[in-house]
Structure formats: structure tokens, C-alpha cells
């Protein structure tokens, strides 16, 4: 199964590095500005064990970083959105602009059946809007949108990801459920075009 992870912050980087342990063999991640440093093994966050994990997966060619998401998304069975949702100044609501920007970028690159999974922390209804944006930008896309919010804690993120105390997957489509569950290693669903 091929996975593309959009965002190389805490959630994206830890999830991407851990997914190979769960099941994935080919993992590509898309980040901005950080891809060269990440290739060199420079981790922009503090998380015990993450540098070793990333370095091992890069060396084994299971993990790759790029600022151009077109090829990784086109090849992916599942694309995870793990971009930031900072609190908006004033009303404190989550700023979803990065999530929606990622959805538009993904839409343009989709090829074949793909599950797009929101991993960022977002309010109810965001999945519908992500799907609407994708279909608006790419009406012929064969896509299912699912939700799989992350609950890892900084400083214990690798352990939390590998041994989650809860798993939440939201989707109305069985293929979406199976692909989303891959992120926890509890489902080894595979499909190729
Ligand atoms: N940090 C945590 O402990 C934690 C735990 C659970 C859930 N979350 C949630 O997960 C989400 C991500 O959190 P984080 O801490 O990893 O955020 P972060 O700010 O550390 O990282 C977000 C990353 O996304 C990148 N990005 C933004 N737009 C992009 C785009 N269009 N294409 C590619 N990359 C893009 C940014 O450059 C950044 O590297 C948030 O919704 C957060 O609330 C965070």
C-alpha cells in the first residue's frame, strides 16, 4: 500500500515514520522547506527515537520527502492530510485554510481510486467540505474522504501512535474505513489499480 502524508509537523512526521511499522512498504511524505533537512536526518521537532526511525526508513527507501506532491499523490492508495489547524485570533476557531489548501492540491494530482483521510484536528463538517473542494477541482476524481483524527502526545508520540488507546475512523464507505484503519496497523487492506 502506498501512502502520501501531507504535512511534516508533529503528527505528519511521526505518523509517516511509524506507518512502515504498521504495514506500509512505500511511504512518501510531502513537506515544505524541510525536505532537504529531513533527508539529512535533521528532525525539526523533539521526539525521542524519531531521528533514528526516520533515518532507518529513509535508508531503507520506505520513506521519502518531497515538496512536489503530484507524483506521491498520483501513486498513493491513501493520502493523509496532517497539516496545522491553528486557533484563529479573535474567535479561537480552528483555521482550516491549510486543510482546504491541501485538499485542492491533492485534487489536482489524484489518479485512480484514492482515499483522502483527514488526520488534522478539525470540526464536524470539515470532511464534507474537503470532499466538496476535491470534487469541485477534479470532478472525475474516484475518491472517498474519511476522517481519522490523531490523539498522540508530544514527547510520547511514537508510543502513542503504535499503541493508541483509541482509534476513531469516520467514513460512509467501506474502502475508506479499511484504508483509514491502516494508519493504526490494524488493517492490512491493499488494492492496486
Ligand atoms: N502536535 C500534537 O500533539 C497533535 C496531537 C493530535 C492532533 N494534532 C493535530 O494534528 C494537526 C497537525 O498538528 P501538528 O502539530 O503536526 O502541526 P504542525 O504545525 O507542527 O505541522 C503542520 C505541517 O503542515 C505543513 N503544511 C501546511 N500546509 C501544507 C500544505 N498545503 N502542503 C504541505 N504541507 C503543509 C506545515 O509546513 C507544517 O510542517 C493539527 O490539526 C493538530 O491540532 C496535533
Q: Care to describe what's here?
A:
The chain contains eight helices and six strands; from the N terminus they run E-H-E-H-H-E-H-E-H-E-H-E-H-H. The protein has 193 residues and is of the alpha/beta class. The chain has one domain: Rossmann fold, CATH 3.40.50. It is globular, with a radius of gyration of 15 Å. The C terminus is likely disordered. The site of nicotinamide-adenine-dinucleotide has 25 residues, from helix 1 and helix 5. Nicotinamide-adenine-dinucleotide (NAD) binds next to helix 1 and helix 5.
CATH level-four homologous superfamily name: NAD(P)-binding Rossmann-like Domain
Largest sheet: 6 strands, parallel
Kindly report the average pLDDT value. Answer: 86
Q: Within the CATH hierarchy, at the fold level, what is the topology?
A: Rossmann fold
Secondary structure topology:
Elements (H helix, E strand, L loop, with lengths): L1 E5 L3 H13 L3 E5 L4 H5 L10 H10 L3 E4 L3 H6 L2 E4 L15 H13 L4 E5 L7 H12 L5 E5 L9 H6 L11 H8 L12
Parallel strand pairs: 1-2, 1-4, 2-3, 4-5, 5-6
Helix pairs in contact: 1-3, 5-6
The protein binds nicotinamide-adenine-dinucleotide.
The site of nicotinamide-adenine-dinucleotide has 25 residues, from helix 1 and helix 5.
Amino acid at each position: 500500500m502506498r501512502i502520501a502524508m501531507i504535512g511534516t509537523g508533529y503528527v505528519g512526521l511521526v505518523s509517516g515514520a511509524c506507518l512502515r511499522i504498521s504495514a506500509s512498504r512505500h511511504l512518501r511524505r510531502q513537506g515544505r522547506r524541510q525536505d532537504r533537512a529531513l533527508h539529512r536526518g535533521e528532525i525539526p521537532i523533539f521526539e525521542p527515537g524519531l531521528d533514528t526511525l526516520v533515518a532507518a526508513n529513509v535508508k531503507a527507501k520506505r520513506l521519502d520527502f518531497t515538496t512536489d506532491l503530484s507524483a506521491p499523490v498520483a501513486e498513493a492508495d491513501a493520502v493523509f492530510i496532517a497539516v496545522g489547524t491553528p486557533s484563529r485570533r479573535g474567535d479561537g476557531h480552528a483555521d482550516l485554510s491549510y486543510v482546504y489548501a491541501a485538499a485542492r492540491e491533492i485534487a489536482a494530482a489524484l489518479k485512480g481510486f484514492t482515499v483522502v483521510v483527514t488526520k488534522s484536528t478539525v470540526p464536524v463538517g470539515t470532511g464534507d467540505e474537503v470532499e466538496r473542494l476535491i470534487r469541485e477541482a477534479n470532478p472525475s476524481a474516484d475518491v472517498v474522504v474519511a476522517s481519522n483524527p490523531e490523539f498522540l502526545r508530544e514527547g510520547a508520540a511514537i508510543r502513542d501512535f503504535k499503541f493508541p488507546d483509541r482509534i476513531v475512523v469516520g467514513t460512509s464507505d467501506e474502502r475508506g474505513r479499511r484504508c483509514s484503519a491502516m494508519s493504526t496497523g490494524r488493517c492490512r487492506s491493499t488494492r492496486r489499480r
